[in-house]
Amino acid sequence: MPWFFWSLVLVVWVAGAIGFNWGWIVLAVWILSVGLIFVPATEELLAKHLFRLRRPTLVEEQRLGPVWHQLLLRADASQSRFSLWIQESEEVNATPTPGHTVAVTRWALYTLPPQHLEAALAHELSHHLGGRAWLSLVDFWYSIPARGGLIVVRAIARLMRRVPALGCIIGGFVVLSYAGIVLAAITFGHGYVWPFLFLTPFIAPPLLAWLNRWRVKEADKKAAMLGYGTTLVQVLYGWQMQHQQDLGRDISRRAQVMSSTPSLVERVRTIEQAGGIPPAAWGNAGF
User: Which of 15, 85, 107, 265 is the most exposed place for a label (fewest CB within 10 A)?
Assistant: First the structure.
């Protein structure tokens, strides 16, 4: 619901910019476009072009096959339900994907021994357990406008850090422009709904970033419940050692709030505190 709400706000903005005589058509098309997720080719297109994933080669399939089969047996999941993809990344975990697409990073595939690779895959698979694939696709489809807005906000923030002079000019222009829009909405509008909608770019990013961090930690919990907790902690610390990370201790508070992934310390604590709810109970466990 948070992703849908913020996406709806952005689409309403576009509709308002076009003019509500035609803007309602834009809004209706966006809402009805969710029907595309039921086309089988949609998931593959999202995986290839939006998440930039690729199919594993035959050699990679030989490496993934045994650990993937063992994981599915432990999770009591059907192999025909999911498809494995590779993300060209040096991160420990791939970007969470909706539907039936399970991705593993190149770093995990080529660096981790089989037992650790299985634990990394358990985290990725856990994003898909305990819920319906079509529901996660609906959730993701309606979140695309909000995710696009979040990318723009992060790009401006990076620019302000890397090129302070130019970043401050752009940031100042954006702030002054929005202040004028909000003031006009309060002066000439009716009620406080429109002013609130125009303030959403400043409210939404930290909330949506927190939601992403929560999802990662929930996947860690499920992986721990499958029995991969200790091994997954070893994977996280191994990645930290190889990439010389500091577990987030020296990262600014603002960067932590805007980050879409929790620090390694948070993830390790989540795994350590995970309970022993069996996989069969996940559907009713509020995950």
Answer: 265
